[in-house]
């Protein structure tokens, strides 16, 4: 298939565009046919959730094809997303074949998609509650780390004396993984939620501080000189010139901090909290319920991907002036 530049829909003619749009429908029909016709060697007990999911994907793919045919303005969107949906369905087919249908990977460590989705449905209430608690813990720690990183980054980036004393401290303390501080935070905070939030905040604080300080320190001198010529004071220079000019670096810190917070969240939920996706995953692993372990992993992937997509949307809105200048 011919492809366009990165970040754009595949380049296509009439026939190739039709094949791209119909690829998800063909993949969903093939997945249903394989699931219904091949015998199951891993588990003889059939479930209905996985076929229902495939039928839902087939309905969505047909809707995308209809959108492509009926609304010309949405054709690029349909051509871009239909092959991605087809790729996701093919991944489900491969998972179904190597586990449930051919039993190439043994139970209980490698359950098929039908068992995983059934486990997700059976524990939906507990998974919803765990996701809610993980979200509260993540947001509390992340925003505390962002606030601390912004303040320390601005101080280190703007004031020479603070930079002189602050950078050596950052170079010594910053590279230590936040999970290494688990014994320290457990000794400092008796409350499990507070200690988990502190761990996440420490993981976010270091990249946020370094990239904010770098952005502030590298503001073009000409910007500051022009503002000083017009009578700007220190407060105006920091908040109206330096910080807006450093926003690309600040957003890099936000992205890196969010990734670090995901990694630390799972460890933070093992220091005594009573709910959360990391806690649920460890609990089900203890009972060798690997179908529910994979169910928690799928929810984590959707949970983290959704937050990252939200931050990308905020970045696109705040840094809209960079579109066309920097490719993203």
From TrEMBL:
Record keyword Methyltransferase present: no
Signal peptide: none
Protein name (Swiss-Prot/TrEMBL): Bicarbonate transport system permease protein CmpB
A GO BP entry: transmembrane transport
One Gene Ontology cellular component: plasma membrane
All copies of domain ABC transmembrane type-1, residue ranges: 131-312
Protein's membrane topology: Multi-pass membrane protein
Natural source organism: Paludisphaera borealis
Keyword Secreted in record: no
Taxonomic lineage from the root: Bacteria, Pseudomonadati, Planctomycetota, Planctomycetia, Isosphaerales
Keywords, ordered alphabetically: Cell membrane, Membrane, Transmembrane, Transmembrane helix, Transport
Subcellular location: Cell membrane
Entry-linked InterPro entries: MetI-like, MetI-like_sf
């Amino acid at each position: 298939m011919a492809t366009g530049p990165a970040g754009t829909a595949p380049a296509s003619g009439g026939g190739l565009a039709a094949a791209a749009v119909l690829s998800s429908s063909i993949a969903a029909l093939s997945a249903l046919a394989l699931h219904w016709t091949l015998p199951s060697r891993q588990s003889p007990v059939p479930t209905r959730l996985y076929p229902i999911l495939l039928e839902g994907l087939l309905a969505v793919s047909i809707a995308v094809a209809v959108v492509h045919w009926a609304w010309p303005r949405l054709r690029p969107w349909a051509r871009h997303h239909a092959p991605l949906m087809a790729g996701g369905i093919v991944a489900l087919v491969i998972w179904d074949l190597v586990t449930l249908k051919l039993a190439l990977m043994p139970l209980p460590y490698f359950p098929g998609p039908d068992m995983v989705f059934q486990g997700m449905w059976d524990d939906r209430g507990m998974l919803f509650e765990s996701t809610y608690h993980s979200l509260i813990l993540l947001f509390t720690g992340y925003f505390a780390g962002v606030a601390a990183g912004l303040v320390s980054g601005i101080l280190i980036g703007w004031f020479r004396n603070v930079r002189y004393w602050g950078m050596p401290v950052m170079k010594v303390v910053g590279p230590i993984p936040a999970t290494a501080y688990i014994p320290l935070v457990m000794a400092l905070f008796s409350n499990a939620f507070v200690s988990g939030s502190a761990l996440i905040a420490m993981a976010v604080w270091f990249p946020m501080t370094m990239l904010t300080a770098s952005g502030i320190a590298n503001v073009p001198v000409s910007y500051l000189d022009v503002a000083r010529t017009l009578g700007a004071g220190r407060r105006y220079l920091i908040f109206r010139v330096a910080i807006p000019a450093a926003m690309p670096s600040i957003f890099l810190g936000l992205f890196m901090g969010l990734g670090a917070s995901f990694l630390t969240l799972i460890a933070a939920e093992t220091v005594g909290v009573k709910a959360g996706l990391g806690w649920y995953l460890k609990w089900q692993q203890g009972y060798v319920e690997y179908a529910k372990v994979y169910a928690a992993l799928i929810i984590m992937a959707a949970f983290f991907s959704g937050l990252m997509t939200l931050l990308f949307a905020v970045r696109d809105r705040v840094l809209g002036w960079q579109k066309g200048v920097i490719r993203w």
